[in-house]
Automatic annotation (TrEMBL):
Any single biological process term in GO: carbohydrate metabolic process
Source lineage: Bacteria, Bacillati, Actinomycetota, Actinomycetes, Bifidobacteriales
Keyword Signal annotated: yes
Keyword Transmembrane helix: yes
Subcellular location: Cell envelope; Cell outer membrane; Secreted
Protein name (Swiss-Prot/TrEMBL): Polymorphic outer membrane protein repeat (3 repeats)
GO CC terms of this entry: cell outer membrane; extracellular region
Family: Belongs to the serine-aspartate repeat-containing protein (SDr) family.
Keyword set, alphabetical order: Cell outer membrane, Membrane, Secreted, Signal, Transmembrane, Transmembrane helix
PANTHER family referenced in this protein's UniProt entry, alphabetically: COLOSSIN-B-RELATED (PTHR36108:SF13)
SpaA-like prealbumin fold domain: residues covered: 712-763, 784-885, 923-1030
InterPro entries per UniProt: Ig-like_fold (IPR013783), POMP_repeat (IPR003368), SpaA_PFL_dom_1 (IPR041033)
Length: 1092
C-alpha cells in the first residue's frame, strides 16, 4: 500500500461479507446492483539495512562476521578461543574493538588448545585494525602463549596483490613465547615483504624470542624480535615495549644451535622500520657470537631493535635496554639498537637515520651503549639526545664499525667519560674523521681517566663476573695509568697498509672559535679496543697542557714519522660552550665507555657536517601579529650534483640513494608523506601544475609541530639539518579558515649568512620580492557557513531537497553561487570554486572558502511537500568577519540582520493538503452531472498525526461536511469548497491520516456504511487518494457510490389500496432468508477449515 494516500477495508470478515453479498445478489440482484472497486497493487518496497558494527562473543561468531563482511567494525564481548586461523583476503577492511562493558580488564584472543598458528593472516590487499584508539576500545589482549602468534601480515609470495596491512591502536600483548616457540620469531606480528604494520599504542611486555634451532611454522631462520619480526614495512608511533628478550634463555645466549641469531629484544627488521614515538624500556638481547663466528662478522645485539635495510628514528624513548652477550670482541653491541649485518653488502644493510629520539641509560656488554653500526652500513646522526648510556668497551653512546660511513651534524658532546681514550670522541686505528667547513662535533668538558674503567654502576671490575654479568678482563683499570684525550683521541694505525686521520677544526658550527691542545699521547702499540697493557698504553706526557696547541684547522695524521696517536682537549669560553649546547641538533652527555669513546667511537669513516636551519612563520594578512597554527608546507631541495652550477641541498642522507620516487596518482599528481623525502619524477607523468616546477627535485611535507618542525610554538617553523644550497617552499595545506597561498617561496643557505626568504613565483609570474620581515608568510582569512532545512512546526525534522543561491549584501547574485544543492558523496570545494556543499551528511549544507564580507542566503527550491518562502524579503544574512575566531561557523540571521536563526536551522512551512471525492448513483457511470447526487453529509476525523502516531480518541475532533451546490460560492460552515452538487473538496488540511464517514445519504439512496480513509503528507498534498479503511483497494477516481432505494412491483388481483410498501415484508423476508443461508455457509466453511 502506498504510504499516505490509502483508504483500507476492515477485512476481519471481508470474505464472510462477500459471501453474504453473493447470496443477496442472487436473490435480490435486480434490487441492489453491486458497486465496483478496482484493486491497486502495493508498490512500496523497503530495503533492509545492514548494521556496520557487530558484536561477537566466540570464535564462530568472529569468523562468520569477518567472512561475511567486506568492511566491518566488530566488537569483542568476551574471550575468543581460536580453533583455526582466520584469513582476511580480497580487500577486506576489518576493525576489532573491545566492548568496555563486557571486558572490564581485557577481551582475550587466545587458543582453544595449544597451537602454533597465527590467529590472523592478512593478505590480498586487506587490512586489520586492533582497537579503536580509545581506552574502552583498546582492551584486546593476546598474552601468555608459549606458542603461536597474533597476526601474520602479507605472504611469502611477495606479490603486491598479496599485500596486507595491520594497525594496532592499543591492547595488551604480554608474556608470549616463554618457551621454545615453534611458530618462530615475532610473537605479535610477522611481517612479510609485502606487509605493512603500524603500531600506535599498546603494551608489549615480557615477550621472548628463542634462539633455539629447528624448523618453524613459517619456515624461516630464527633471528630475533620477540614482538615483531619484519621483512616489510613497520611504523611505530606509540606503545610501550618493556622487558622483551631474545636469546636461548634468560641466563645463556644463542650457541651452536643457532649461530645466526641476531638479536633485537622487541623488533627485528630487514625491511623499513620507522620509529616516530613509543617507549622501549628494559628490553634485552642475549645474542652473542660463539666459536669465532665473529671472524665472518655475524651480528649479535640490539636490546630493543636489530635492523637492516632502512631504519629511521624520528622520536621515541629508548631507556634501560641491554645487550648482554660478551663472548667475543667483535660484531656485538647495541644496548638499544644494532644496525646492519656484517656478512651482507651495502645493498642489504642500507642506511640508518637518527632524526630524533632520546637514548637514556642503555647498556652494552660490548660496544655501543645505545647504538651499534656494523660493517658495510651508512648511518646519519642528525638529531637526538644521548644521555647516561654505558658500554663495556667502546662507544658509550654510539659505536660504528670498520667499513661503515657515518655522518654527524651539529653535535655537542660534553661531560662524557672514557676509562682510557677519548672521553668525548675516539677513532680506532682505522677510523677516519672528516670535517666539513666549520662542522664537527663541539667537544668540551669530557674526561678520559682510568677511574671510569668500571661497571655501569661505577663498581671496580676486580673479577670477570659481577652480579651474574660477565664483564670480563678484570684489572684493565690498572693499565695505561692516565689515559689520553679528554675530548678526543685517535689511535696509531697499527696494521700494515692501514691509515687514519682526523680533520681538526678550530671553529664550531656555532661560529665560535676554540683552541685544541695535546692531552696525553697513545703509544704506537695502543689500539684502545683490547684490554691488554700494550693496547691501553700511553707515552709520558703531562696533562692537560704538556703538548702542542692548535689554533688553526689541522689534519692529524698518525703513522709514518708520527710514531704515536693523539689525545686532545678543547679550551672554549663559557659562552661558546653554552652556544653549542643551545644550538646543537644532537646532544651527547653523561655517557661512559669502559675503554674508549665516552660519547662516540668509530672504526669507520665519520664525516662531521655542518648543517643549518631555516625559520618562518605563518600569519594572518589581516593581523600579521597573529600566528596561525595548522599549516603544512612542501619543502623542496635540489640534490642533482650541481647542475647549472647549483650546489646540492637538502639533508645529508639524500646522498645515499634511499630516497625513492614520489607516488604518482592517476591524475598526474604526487603524494609526498609528512616528514619523508621523495623525488618528483622528471618526466611527463607529472602533470599537476602544483608539482611540475619541481620535477627531478626532492620534496617533503613539513607539518606544523610535526616530525620535521623543531619549533613547538604553533604557527612558527624551524627545520634543521639542511645543507648549504637552494630551497623552495610552497604551502601544502593552509591553516583552517585561511586561503592557501599559491605562491612559491625560495631561500638560499649560505655559511654564516642569515637565510632570506623571497617570493619566487606569484600567480605564474617570477618575482624576487623579499618578505617584509624575512620570516612571516601571510594567508588571507576566509570563512564558512553551515545550515540545515527543518520543518517549521517542530523545528527538528530535517528536510531534504532544498536548493539555494548566494547574493552579496545588496542582493546581487554572486557568479557561480546560483545553484547550491545538497551533496551526499565525494563533496569538495576549492578556493576557485567555493560555492559547493562540502558536508556529505544528507540534508545538511556547508560552504567554505568564502571571502570576508556579508552575504544573503536565498532559498530557490523548497523541499517536497513544503512551501517556498513568499516575497523578496524572505532571505537570511551572515557575515564573515576577520576578527571572528569562529568565522568558519557564521551565524545566520533573518532579513533584518539582527534576529538569529536558532542553530542555523532554516524552517519551512508544510504545504497544506486537499481531498476531492464524488457522490454518485451506483447505477450510472462516471462522475458527470447526471451521475452525481446532491445532498449527502459527512463526518471527517483526523485519527493519526503527521508522524503516523495515533491520536487518542478523546482528543479527536469530528468535522461535519455538507454538500455545497451554490454557484455563487460555499459557506465556511459547509467546509465543502466545490460548488458542484455531489462533488466535495476540502482544502488546507494538516498532514495526517483521516477517516471519512457518510452521515446522511442523498434522498432516495441508501447511506454508505463504509469507512474511508486518506493521508496527507509531503508526498501527497494534492487531492488525496481515498481507500476503504483496512483494505488494499483504492476507491477508483475517488467516486463513492450510493445505491437507490427501490422496490419491485409483484402481480396481484383485487382492488383497494395495495402499494409496493405492502410487499416490503416479503422482500425483507427474502433478504433475511438469503442472509441466513449465507451465514450458514460461512460457519460451515470455517468449521471445515478448522478440521482440514
Amino acid at each position: 500500500m502506498k504510504h499516505g494516500s490509502s483508504i483500507q477495508n476492515n477485512g476481519g470478515g471481508y470474505r464472510f461479507v462477500a459471501s453474504l453479498l453473493a447470496v443477496v445478489a442472487l436473490i435480490v440482484a435486480s434490487l441492489i446492483p453491486p458497486s465496483v472497486h478496482v484493486a491497486k497493487a502495493d508498490d512500496d518496497a523497503s530495503a533492509a539495512s545492514v548494521t556496520p558494527t557487530v558484536s561477537v562473543s566466540d570464535y564462530t561468531g568472529l569468523a562468520n562476521a569477518i567472512n561475511g563482511s567486506q568492511s566491518a567494525v566488530i566488537a569483542i564481548t568476551g574471550k575468543i578461543a581460536f580453533t583455526g586461523q582466520i584469513t582476511l583476503n580480497q580487500g577486506k577492511k576489518i576493525t576489532l574493538v573491545s566492548d568496555a562493558s563486557a571486558c572490564s580488564t581485557a577481551c582475550e584472543l587466545t587458543y582453544a588448545s595449544g597451537n602454533d598458528f597465527s590467529l590472523f593472516n592478512v593478505i590480498g590487499d586487506s587490512s586489520l585494525t586492533f582497537g579503536g584508539g580509545t581506552e574502552d576500545t583498546n582492551k584486546l589482549s593476546f598474552s601468555n602463549h608459549s606458542n603461536g602468534r597474533l597476526v601474520q601480515v602479507g605472504s611469502a609470495s611477495d606479490k603486491a596483490s598479496d599485500k596486507g596491512t595491520v594497525t594496532i591502536n592499543g591492547g595488551t600483548y604480554n608474556k608470549n613465547g616463554r618457551d621454545s616457540n615453534t611458530t618462530g620469531d615475532g610473537n605479535i606480528a610477522y611481517v612479510f615483504k609485502n606487509g605493512n604494520l603500524t603500531i600506535n599504542g599498546g603494551d608489549f611486555k615480557n615477550n621472548y624470542a628463542s634462539a633455539a634451532s629447528g624448523s618453524t611454522t613459517i619456515g624461516v631462520t630464527r633471528s630475533g624480535g620477540a614482538v615483531v619480526r619484519s621483512s616489510g614495512s613497520v611504523t611505530i608511533n606509540g606503545g610501550t615495549f618493556y622487558q622483551n628478550y631474545t636469546g636461548q634463555n634468560y641466563t645463556g645466549q644463542n650457541g651452536e644451535d643457532n649461530v645466526t641469531f641476531h638479536g633485537g629484544g622487541a623488533i627485528w627488521s630487514e625491511g623499513t622500520l620507522i620509529v616516530n614515538g613509543g617507549l622501549f624500556s628494559a628490553n634485552k638481547s642475549y645474542a652473542a657470537n660463539v666459536n669465532s663466528e665473529y671472524k665472518i662478522k655475524r651480528p649479535a645485539g640490539g636490546g630493543a631493535i636489530w635492523a637492516a635495510g632502512r631504519l629511521v628514528v624520528n622520536g621515541g624513548t629508548f631507556q634501560d635496554n641491554w645487550q648482554m652477550g660478551n663472548k667475543d670482541l667483535y660484531g656485538t653491541g647495541g644496548g638499544a639498537i644494532y644496525f646492519g649485518d656484517g656478512t651482507q653488502n651495502e645493498d642489504y644493510n642500507g642506511t640508518m637515520i637518527i632524526n630524533g629520539g632520546t637514548f637514556d641509560s642503555n647498556r652494552s656488554m660490548q660496544d655501543g651503549g645505545a647504538i651499534f653500526v656494523t660493517w658495510n652500513c651508512t648511518a646519519v646522526f642528525q638529531q637526538g639526545t644521548f644521555v647516561n648510556n654505558w658500554s663495556n668497551r667502546l662507544g658509550g653512546a654510539v659505536y660504528t664499525e670498520e667499513d661503515s660511513t657515518s655522518y654527524v651534524t651539529n653535535a655537542v658532546a660534553y661531560e662524557n667519560y672514557a676509562g682510557h681514550f677519548g672521553g668525548g670522541l675516539w677513532l680506532c686505528p682505522s677510523g677516519k674523521g672528516v670535517t666539513s667547513k666549520h662542522g664537527g662535533m663541539a667537544l668540551f668538558a669530557n674526561e678520559a681517566n682510568v677511574k671510569y674503567d668500571r661497571t655501569e654502576t661505577g663498581a671496580e671490575i676486580r673479577q670477570d663476573t659481577i652480579d651474574n654479568k660477565d664483564y670480563g678482563y678484570s684489572g684493565s683499570q690498572d693499565r695505561g695509568v692516565t689515559g689520553a684525550g679528554d675530548d678526543f683521541s685517535i689511535m696509531y694505525p697499527s696494521k700494515s697498509g692501514q691509515t687514519n686521520y682526523f680533520q681538526l677544526s678550530v671553529e664550531w658550527f656555532t661560529g665560535d672559535t676554540i683552541t685544541w691542545h695535546d692531552d696525553g699521547q697513545p703509544t704506537s702499540k695502543a689500539n684502545g679496543y683490547l684490554y691488554t697493557a700494550d693496547a691501553l698504553s700511553v707515552n709520558a706526557m703531562s696533562r692537560p697542557d704538556g703538548g702542542v696547541g692548535y689554533t688553526s684547522d689541522t689534519t692529524l695524521d698518525p703513522g709514518g714519522s708520527n710514531d704515536f696517536g693523539y689525545g686532545l682537549k678543547v679550551t672554549a669560553s663559557v659562552r661558546a660552550q653554552q652556544n653549542a649546547i643551545n644550538q646543537a641538533f644532537i646532544t651527547f652527555t653523561k655517557n661512559t665507555a669502559r675503554l674508549s669513546g665516552g660519547a662516540f667511537g668509530s672504526n669507520g669513516v665519520v664525516t662531521f657536517t655542518k648543517v643549518y636551519d631555516v625559520n618562518w612563520n605563518k600569519v594572518s594578512s589581516a593581523d600579521t601579529g597573529k600566528k596561525l597554527a595548522g599549516s603544512e608546507w612542501l619543502l623542496v631541495a635540489r640534490n642533482d650534483d650541481g647542475i647549472d652550477g647549483e650546489v646540492k641541498s637538502g639533508p645529508a642522507h639524500l646522498d645515499f640513494g634511499l630516497v625513492g620516487k614520489c607516488d604518482i596518482t592517476d591524475s598526474g599528481s604526487i603524494t609526498p608523506k609528512k616528514g619523508e623525502w621523495c623525488q618528483v619524477p622528471n618526466d611527463a607523468s607529472v602533470t599537476d601544475g602544483y608539482y611540475s616546477e619541481f620535477k627531478g627535485k626532492y620534496v617533503t611535507v613539513v607539518e606544523d609541530n610535526g616530525l620535521l618542525d623543531q619549533n613547538n610554538n604553533p604557527g612558527e617553523f624551524k627545520v634543521k639539518d639542511l645543507r648549504e644550497g637552494k630551497y623552495w617552499l610552497k604551502e601544502y595545506q593552509a591553516p583552517n579558515g585561511y586561503m592557501q597561498s599559491g605562491k612559491t617561496y625560495t631561500f638560499d643557505i649560505v655559511d654564516n649568512e642569515q637565510s632570506t626568504i623571497s617570493i619566487s613565483v606569484d600567480d605564474g609570474k617570477t618575482t624576487g620580492t623579499v618578505l617584509s620581515d624575512n620570516v612571516s608568510i601571510t594567508n588571507t582569512p576566509y570563512g564558512g557557513v553551515s545550515w540545515s532545512k527543518v520543518d517549521s512546526t517542530d523545528g527538528m525534522t530535517v528536510l531534504s531537497g532544498s536548493e539555494w543561491k548566494l547574493q552579496d549584501a545588496n542582493g546581487n547574485d554572486i557568479q557561480g553561487a546560483g545553484n547550491i544543492t545538497d551533496c551526499t558523496d565525494k563533496c569538495s570545494a576549492s578556493q576557485d570554486n567555493p560555492y559547493q556543499d562540502v558536508d556529505s551528511a544528507k540534508d545538511s549544507f556547508k560552504l567554505t572558502y568564502l571571502p570576508l564580507g556579508t552575504y544573503r542566503l536565498v532559498e530557490t527550491k523548497a523541499p517536497k511537500g513544503y512551501n517556498l518562502p513568499d516575497g523578496t524579503q524572505v532571505y537570511y544574512t551572515f557575515t564573515i568577519d576577520k576578527d571572528d575566531d569562529d568565522r568558519m561557523n557564521a551565524k545566520l540571521c533573518k532579513a533584518d540582520g539582527v534576529t538569529e536563526v536558532t542553530e542555523n536551522k532554516v524552517p519551512n512551512d508544510r504545504t497544506k493538503g486537499s481531498v476531492i471525492w464524488y457522490k454518485t448513483d451506483s447505477t450510472k457511470e462516471g462522475k458527470g452531472d447526471d451521475a452525481r447526487l446532491k445532498g449527502s453529509e459527512w463526518s471527517l476525523t483526523q485519527t493519526k498525526d503527521w508522524k503516523g502516531s495515533n491520536i487518542a480518541t478523546d482528543k479527536r475532533t469530528a468535522i461535519a461536511v455538507t454538500d455545497c451546490f451554490n454557484d455563487t460560492g460555499c459557506s465556511a460552515a459547509s467546509k465543502d469548497q466545490a460548488k458542484e452538487a455531489g462533488k466535495f473538496q476540502l482544502k488546507n488540511l494538516d498532514w495526517g491520516t483521516y477517516e471519512l464517514v457518510e452521515t446522511k445519504a442523498p434522498a432516495g439512496f441508501h447511506k454508505s456504511e463504509t469507512t474511508y480513509t486518506f493521508v496527507i503528507d509531503k508526498d501527497y498534498t494534492g487531492p488525496a487518494e481515498i481507500q476503504i479503511k483496512n483494505g488494499t483497494d483504492s476507491v477508483t477516481g475517488n467516486i463513492i457510490t450510493n445505491t437507490p432505494i427501490t422496490v419491485n412491483s409483484l402481480p396481484f388481483t383485487g382492488t383497494g389500496s395495495q402499494t409496493p410498501r405492502m410487499f416490503l415484508p416479503y422482500v425483507l423476508g427474502t433478504v433475511g432468508a438469503g442472509l441466513a443461508v449465507g451465514l450458514g455457509l460461512h460457519v460451515a466453511r470455517r468449521r471445515m477449515a478448522r478440521q482440514g
